[in-house]
């Protein structure tokens, strides 16, 4: 990442190093109980055999290590950006943690976030932190329908800045829904292709599949089979 903050985009396929990063992250998420296996209902009404709850990165040590994963992915990606935006609510601590970690690594960047409801006292308004300007990186946990991304893009554009890129912890690589109907593309693909943002993820569903395949002997064979069946039903083709 240069001083203009280069961090070479996810359009570049995972290298051996970043594949290793993804596997390390999946193991970390499992160890923290953030990535769980069972039966979970998604926003789209699907019964998923796995669930990722970033809210369970719930102490200083976990959040610090999570920030390291975000920073390492961005530094490996080549995406350039001028500041960080954390959309309410989960994106706020994630964006702040990434800003702190990047500063620790010598890449200090402004950070801002939004409130769900505007304040009518004090400084007022719905935006907090540095003024939104330049190329903005949006930080979030998992992109499901792209709704949060569209909201963040609207806020950033309304402030006169450029919604430029987005980083998430996990790309589920599954079909998005429009009006309750499955479509052929994922939320990440929609944000890339229709909204024009670069998007990168610390790990993808394909990385989770690799992890499960390598740990079948540790009691995960059934989980692997169920996640594979889910992916075959709802997964999207990479482009």
Poorly predicted spans: 5-18
Number of helices: 7
Helix content: 25-40%
Mean pLDDT: 88
Output the radius of gyration.
Answer: 18 Å
Written description of the protein model:
The chain contains 7 helices and 10 strands. The chain has 239 residues and is of the alpha/beta class. Mean pLDDT is 88; it is low at 5-18. It is globular and about 50 Å long. Helix 1 (16-31) packs across helix 6, helix 2 (60-77) crosses helix 3 (91-104) and helix 6 runs antiparallel to helix 7 (221-234). The strands form 3 sheets. A 6-stranded mixed beta sheet has the order 5-4-3-6-7-10, sandwiched between helices. It has a two-stranded antiparallel ribbon with strand order 1-2. Strands 8-9 form a two-stranded antiparallel ribbon. The protein has helices spanning 16-31, 60-77, 91-104, 147-158, 187-193, 205-214, 221-234, and strands at residues 35-41, 47-52, 83-86, 111-119, 125-129, 135-139, 162-171, 175-178, 181-186, 198-204.
Quickly describe the structure.
The protein has 239 residues and is of the alpha/beta class. Helices cover 38% and strands 26% of the residues.
């Amino acid at each position: 990442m240069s001083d203009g903050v280069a961090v070479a985009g996810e359009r570049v396929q995972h290298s051996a190093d970043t594949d290793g990063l993804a596997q390390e992250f999946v193991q970390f998420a499992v160890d923290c109980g953030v990535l769980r296996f069972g039966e979970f209902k998604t926003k789209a009404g699907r019964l998923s055999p796995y669930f990722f709850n970033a809210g369970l990165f719930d102490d200083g040590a976990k959040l610090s290590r999570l920030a390291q994963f975000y920073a390492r992915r961005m530094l490996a990606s080549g995406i350039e950006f001028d500041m960080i935006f954390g959309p309410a609510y989960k994106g706020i601590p994630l964006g702040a943690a990434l800003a702190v970690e990047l500063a620790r690594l010598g890449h200090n960047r402004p950070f801002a976030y939004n409130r769900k409801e505007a304040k009518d006292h004090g400084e007022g308004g719905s935006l907090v932190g540095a003024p939104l300007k330049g190329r903005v990186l949006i930080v979030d946990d998992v992109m499901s329908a792209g709704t949060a991304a569209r909201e963040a893009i609207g806020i950033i554009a309304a402030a006169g800045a450029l919604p430029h890129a987005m980083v998430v912890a996990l790309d589920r690589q599954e079909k998005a829904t429009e009006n309750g109907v499955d479509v052929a593309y994922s939320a990440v693909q929609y944000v890339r292709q229709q909204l024009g943002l670069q998007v990168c993820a610390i790990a993808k569903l394909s990385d989770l599949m690799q992890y499960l395949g390598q740990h079948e002997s540790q009691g995960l064979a059934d989980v692997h089979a169920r996640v594979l069946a889910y992916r075959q039903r709802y997964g999207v083709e990479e482009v």
